[in-house]
Recover the amino acids of this structure.
């Protein structure tokens, strides 16, 4: 699975996710990536793209939950990401990347590593795999 | 003026034994795709165009599980899915079960922009792609030798493997992990007994 979350210089956000799914999966199996609110979500406060065990991400509506924690609890982006990865996945393993409408980036994962990269307008740029 | 920002991923759950050269290759691909987004944002591109352009880059590179290099079904074929969402007005588009569309994320964008729906799948999605003149290729374009080998491992372990997925603290490769956990007749999903997953 691959994904991208962006906020542009007008403060508008967007997110996209794309995948081949699980190796040896049944034909016709749908994962989280195409499901808005689970694998992908974008609104005024943030944009999110998730990856990992699709069944766990679907059940937890993970991408929408990050936005909901920000909207309803007034949490900051990283705080919302940490809460959702820690509290919402049950036994599932997953990761996500996110940006806020105010130009922050965040990510979180509860499995061994996540291929990721992020950059902000003030020059910060990072590419990583492990914790 | 707001401040732009971008984040990308290539999948979570990485084999802790991933060889160094593969890790370096992953970082090169991530850095290249990230730069595509940064350059577009510096040029004032809207967020929606940037996420589509970056995910297209990631789909086209065979390193990650999407587009070319997608995981294989138990039949050894590729069925891809993608979604895109515009935070402005919360518009969205999604596709599933596409097997010839070169860049599924662009088809998801067309579903959002050019169809009255939010989600098209399988034959309907393939037909819409052709109506919209999107580039289509033979399914073999998406299949890599690495993934044919990984599928063989998955079948031997009789499991459904999440790419590179290794449970926390697990040191074996996922196929061995799945093999050791594999019950004689129980299904294994992502290397874990299917029983731990709540019924869908």
């Amino acid at each position: 699975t691959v994904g991208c979350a962006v906020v542009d210089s007008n403060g508008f956000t967007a997110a996209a996710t794309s995948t081949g799914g699980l190796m040896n999966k049944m034909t016709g199996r749908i994962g989280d990536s195409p499901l808005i609110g689970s694998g992908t979500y974008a609104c005024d406060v943030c944009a999110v793209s998730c990856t990992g065990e699709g069944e766990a991400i679907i059940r937890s509506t993970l991408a929408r939950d990050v936005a909901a924690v920000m909207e309803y609890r007034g949490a900051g982006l990283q705080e919302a990401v940490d809460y959702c990865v820690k509290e919402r996945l049950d036994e599932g393993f997953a990761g996500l990347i996110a940006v806020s409408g105010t130009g922050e980036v965040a990510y979180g994962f509860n499995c061994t590593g996540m291929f990721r990269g992020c950059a902000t307008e003030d020059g910060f740029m990072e590419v990583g795999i492990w914790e | 003026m707001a401040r732009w920002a971008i984040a990308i991923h290539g999948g979570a759950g990485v084999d802790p034994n991933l060889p160094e050269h593969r890790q370096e290759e992953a970082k090169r691909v991530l850095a290249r795709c990230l730069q595509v987004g940064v350059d577009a944002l510096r040029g004032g591109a809207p967020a929606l165009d940037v996420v589509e352009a970056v995910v297209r880059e990631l789909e086209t590179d065979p390193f990650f599980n999407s587009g070319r290099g997608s995981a294989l079904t138990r039949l050894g074929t590729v069925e891809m899915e993608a979604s895109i969402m515009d935070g402005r007005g919360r518009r969205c588009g999604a596709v599933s079960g596409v097997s010839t569309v070169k860049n599924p994320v662009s088809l998801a964008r067309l579903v959002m922009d050019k169809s009255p729906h939010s989600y098209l799948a399988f034959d309907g999605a393939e037909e819409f792609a052709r109506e919209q003149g999107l580039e289509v290729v033979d399914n073999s374009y998406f299949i890599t030798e690495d993934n044919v080998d990984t599928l063989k491992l998955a079948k031997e372990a009789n499991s459904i493997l999440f790419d590179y997925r290794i449970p926390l603290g697990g040191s074996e490769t996922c196929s061995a992990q799945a093999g050791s956990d594999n019950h004689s007749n129980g299904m294994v999903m992502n290397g874990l007994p299917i029983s731990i997953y709540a019924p869908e």
Summary: The mean pLDDT of chain A is 97.
